[in-house]
Each structure stands twice: as structure tokens, then as C-alpha cells.
Amino acid sequence: MASVNNDRKIDVFGVGNALVDTLAFVQDDFLSKHKLDKGIMTLADGDRQGDILLDLKDHQLELRSGGSAANTMWTIARSGGRAVYTGKVSDDPNGEFYRHDLERNGVTLYGRPMHEDHGPTGTCVVMTTADAQRTMCTHLGVSVLLHADDINTDALKDSKIAYLEGYLWMGDDTRATSEYALQLARQHDVLAAYTFSDPFCV
Would you say domain 10-195 falls under CATH 3.40.1190.20? Predict the structure, then answer.
């Protein structure tokens, strides 16, 4: 089993779905109206996501670069570690925001952006209720197009830990990419960590 190699320059190499988070506080009836199970992540198509965002237009909203593994990379970088992240975005405004926001917080983003003709950057609406439960509705967008050739092999080889999110196992292509990254980690003695992310994934 691999152990942490402290001579490597990158502390954690993250791989996951690149999503722009929209954060909002809502009442329980908002979740009921949109048939969302409290405390769970629900996958949505673009139309359903658009309806939810339209219904939030009068709420105070906050945008952030997100995705389960990306949030972990953000925390590592803000805590003084060196973190990089591999995820797929589009060359649309959300994709530009995502890259800028990650890099502003000290995280390098890998993964070739897709032309927006292939679809939009993925989004996640994160709704918090008064009981502090967090309910998410996610439109994956082009994040599902993450492939093995998006993995920066040199950066992975120079990492102490490879950190992969469980949501990647929900799509055939992203699962294959996850397995490829884990294989590379084993080949180059990079310690691998995996998160199941959500009860939906178990």
C-alpha cells in the first residue's frame, strides 16, 4: 500500500465534477414545491434546474466554484497546502467564473474546457433550511465529459495524495476516468483517497 511521499510538491490532486454552486436559504415548502428530498442530492436536467433558479430569483444568492472534491481542494489551499483539481467546464461564463474562482483561492484547475456547443458548465443549487439541512439539486452539464486524457499525469506523479469524489461513479465516462486516475496513483505510489460524497452514491 502506498504511503505519503513528503518529497512531492503537490499535497493533494483532486478529481471530480466541476460545478458552479448557487447557495440559498429556503423554507421547507420550497423543497416540497420542487419535489426535492431534504438532505439529499438530486440530479436534474437543464429545464428543471432552470425552473428552480428562476424560483430563487428573489432570494439572496451566493455563487462559488464547487463540486465535492473541489471544495476539499479549496479548503486545503486556504489552509496552506498545495492543491490542484481536475474537472471539466465549458467555455461559457460559468466556466470562466469557475476557473477564476478556484485559482483566486489557490487551486490550479486541470482539464480542457469544452466548447459551449457541447453543453453548459455544470451547476449545483445548494439549499439550506432552518434546521441546517443541506439539499442539493445538480445539473452535471459538461462535467460528465471528463475523460482520462484530462488527467495531468505529471502533476499526479508529483502529488502526495490523489483524492477522488464518489459522484464520479454515477456516470460511465467519469467512472472510467476515476478508475484511470486510481490506476495511475497505484503505479506511481501516490496515496489514494476516495469519498462516497452522498447517501445517493452508496
Answer: yes
